[in-house]
Amino acid sequence: xxxxxxxxxxxxxxxxAPIILIFVLALAGCVSVPPQPKNIxxxxxxxxxxxxxxxxAKKVERRWGVPVSTQLAIMHQESSFIGRAKPSRQRLxxxxxxxxxxxxxxxxxxxxxxxxDYQRDTGxxxxxxxxxxxxxxxxxxxxxxxxxxxxxxxxxxxxxxxxYHDGPRGYLQGTYRRKAWxxxxxxxxxxxxxxxxxxxxxxxxx
Length: 206
What we know:
two-stranded antiparallel sheet; mainly alpha
């Protein structure tokens, strides 16, 4: 009887390769995303729970000129600080879960295409939309881009949010004028920015 001898090294490689691959994929799927802050309406409480967020938000403020309060207000509106937030699925015949209305994802609810633009322009190719730090930097980058393309001052949060939602071109074309709901949301974001700004003045240990 003849036998085929398989080298031990080859056997071990073939045996462990799929196991290692499964382990790596499982580990990647378990990357930790912090839970939603306990009190998303108070900037001091948010940063007390996640001190690193404050340090990185301040870096964004220095880099892009977008205040910490504005970054927080947009995240509050877009995702309620839920790192893996996605738009709700549409319903087929009002019952069957269907496609999502857009590719928005993460803290900033950035579209996939816009996020790719951010990665290319900043060189931050490893940036993730479910990272608070990267999302804050994205907001700073995008609002600065809006500022340059539309002339909206960085302290005019109402107009900035309209352009954040409809894009710089849409804002210049006045697409928001046909969206009463968006105008109301932009007013809320502006109000939330002021609240956060006032709270940050009195935060201790920041």
